[in-house]
Amino acid sequence: MDAMTTPEERRDALAAPVVILVGHFGSGKSEIALNLALGFRAGGEDVSVVDLDVVKPYFRCRQAREELRAHGIRLVAPEGENAHADLPIILPAVRHLLQHGDGRVLLDVGGDPVGARALGSVSDAVDRSATEHLVVLNFSRPHTATVGEAVEMVRAIERAARLPVTGVISNTHLLSETTPEVVLDGLATAAQTAGRLRVPLVAAAAEGTTARALAGRALPCPLLVLTRLIKPPFEGTRQQRKVGPLFVLN
Question: Which pairing describes strands 104-109 and 47-52: parallel, antiparallel, or unpaired?
Fold first, then answer.
């Protein structure tokens, strides 16, 4: 059955006030972080987004700074002339937010074990009882094309971040060439990976047209319908958001 969930159901799906998203470059974790932030905010929650991504200059939450500000979402990221700098300048603010922040906190962490070191530097401030550490997997990427490669990447991220991964989000896509079959194939591989890791498959994700084509399919987890908010410079300006994200329960 298709349905838009309430904020409470979203909390059940993600299971924590603090959600940390990790994954390899191209996994789509920044898009997921932004969509979740806007969805939770639309549900009336106070939301903070922490951009801990030091890996990819063109696909980071800070690219959506103005949109987040317009929706009343706090963005913790380098500002002004330091907007593209590495992160030591914001780590004290991140630590304070993890220890004392109110509302929903979403962390977008750099896309591989190197990027996860930034999370490792504040891992002692993470309340594990209130935190989900979720890996986003895109099996169309060369470094996570198989279950074995994905498991190896996750273990390396865990070592660098000094935190165990607690769940998997499946986000296999080929940008504009994504089909429902691509999503379903990736979802099956993500389920196998979650089994190997002994963590739950928390959600799958797909953009609007593909997600609508999946409506009514029997999926093993909720489907997060994404609006693409970040584009590389060669694609021009970001598209304007029309609606919030949906969880479709099957």
Answer: parallel
